[in-house]
Inverse folding.
């Protein structure tokens, strides 16, 4: 059932290519604005500014891409899913799919940043691991919040308001790790923050897993 | 909690805190000096806030397991009182920082963490007010309450301990839990914490009683019109 649901997500996404294209363009615009504002006339990009801009872009793109997972659904579809699948399978399929989407977006963002700005990252391996873990954390927490926000009136504003405070701890750890990667610290120094990030992910996923059935009922 | 002894205890402890907190001797430390007395008023705010938010989250869990007007009301009102304590904690902290650090807002990890914790619960109230169906709103906000509380744990308890901070008690700065919280201060500090927590619970129960009474009045008026 889980696999079926994930397959369904991918199929739906490929059928509505405009959504993915829109998200890609959103990310591109954010990178391009950063480039115009910070690097075109005078080069203001220090490694720390780079990491701040990078994570702000990734955060906004992640919020927008995950937000559509529930908010975009047609009315009545959720009743249909409710009858054929268990809420937990449904949530997991959404989280896994959103994880994939966020990771693609993060990697694309990294590529665009190296293209337009520069690439201050010394320790590539740890940085990719950070991207993966942060995407997982974003996917797990934002999917549940998107489910909550979709039930309310002004979902799009609410999505941003609800998610910022919750993802900040993930974001702070990611920025800390990015700084380590920029400084080129070796793997031993990064082991502990990576583990903390992973622990936060586990925590967030577990809570989403427990709470989702209650949201799904309404 | 129907009996009154804990309310009297709260008043007695707080009167004691104010008198003893301002008059008894304190150890003389660099920079902090007399402002160390903020320990009796500022730090208990955070203890109180965490206790109130925790209670709010517990009532949110109870609400999800067993939806009722009462559980929801308790959860909301405890969160309300928690926000008041959080704001007081930030304000007292800023007054203290103005003297000890030279400016009220210093971008210290503890300050940003506290501000984010308040943002979470303000978002909680925005969520409540933007769902039109009351029953559904109660359930969604209960879910968000639990989620936010869990997400707040690393923010308040783990990350500030991993980063350097100028806050007393961190990174070799004198403060709570170290050698300098001597027995004289403990004699005031622990009663202060208990007194402030009890006061928070008292405020909450009063608000709950007001809301219950309002609800009852509404019901009676509804019956009249029908």
């Amino acid at each position: 059932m889980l696999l079926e649901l994930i397959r369904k997500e991918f199929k739906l996404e490929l059928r509505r290519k405009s959504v993915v294209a829109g998200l890609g363009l959103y990310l591109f615009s954010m990178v391009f604005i950063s480039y115009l504002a910070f690097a075109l006339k005078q080069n203001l990009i220090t490694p720390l500014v780079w990491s701040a801009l990078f994570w702000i872009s990734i955060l906004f793109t992640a919020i927008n891409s995950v937000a559509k997972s529930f908010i975009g659904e047609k009315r009545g579809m959720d009743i249909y899913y409710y009858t054929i699948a268990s809420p937990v399978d449904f949530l997991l399929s959404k989280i896994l799919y959103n994880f994939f989407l966020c990771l693609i977006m993060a990697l694309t963002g990294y590529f665009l940043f190296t293209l337009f700005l520069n690439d201050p990252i010394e320790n590539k391996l740890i940085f990719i691991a950070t991207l993966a873990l942060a995407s997982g954390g974003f996917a797990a927490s934002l999917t549940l919040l998107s489910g909550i926000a979709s039930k309310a009136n002004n979902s799009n504003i609410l999505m941003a308001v609800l998610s910022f405070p919750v993802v900040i701890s993930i974001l702070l750890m990611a920025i800390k790790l990015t700084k380590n990667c920029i400084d080129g610290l070796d793997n031993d120094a990064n082991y502990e923050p990576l583990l903390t990030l992973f622990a936060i992910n586990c925590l967030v996923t577990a809570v989403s897993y427990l709470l989702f059935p209650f949201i799904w009922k309404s | 909690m129907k009996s009154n002894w804990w309310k009297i205890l709260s008043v007695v402890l707080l009167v004691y805190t104010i008198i003893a907190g301002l008059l008894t001797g304190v150890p003389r430390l660099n920079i902090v000096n007399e402002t160390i007395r903020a320990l009796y008023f500022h730090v208990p705010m955070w203890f109180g806030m965490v206790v109130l938010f925790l209670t709010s989250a517990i009532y949110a869990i109870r609400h999800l397991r067993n939806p009722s007007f009462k559980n929801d009301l308790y959860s909301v009102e405890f969160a309300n009182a928690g926000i008041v304590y959080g704001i007081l904690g930030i304000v007292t902290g800023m007054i203290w920082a103005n003297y000890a650090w030279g400016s009220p807002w210093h971008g210290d990890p503890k300050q940003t963490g506290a501000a984010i914790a308040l943002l979470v619960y303000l978002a909680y109230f925005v969520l409540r007010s933007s769902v039109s169906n009351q029953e559904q709103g109660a359930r969604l906000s209960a879910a968000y309450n639990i989620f936010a509380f869990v997400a707040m744990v690393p923010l308040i308890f783990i990350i500030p301990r991993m980063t350097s901070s100028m806050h007393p008690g961190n990174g070799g700065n004198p403060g709570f839990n170290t050698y300098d919280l001597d027995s004289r201060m403990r004699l005031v500090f622990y009663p202060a914490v208990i007194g402030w927590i009890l006061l928070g619970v008292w405020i909450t129960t009063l608000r709950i009683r007001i809301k219950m009474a309002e609800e009852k009045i509404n019901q009676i008026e509804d019956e009249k019109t029908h």
Remarks:
- The longest helix of chain B spans residues 183-225.
- The two ends of chain B are 36 Å apart (CA to CA).
- Residues 42-225 of chain B form one domain.
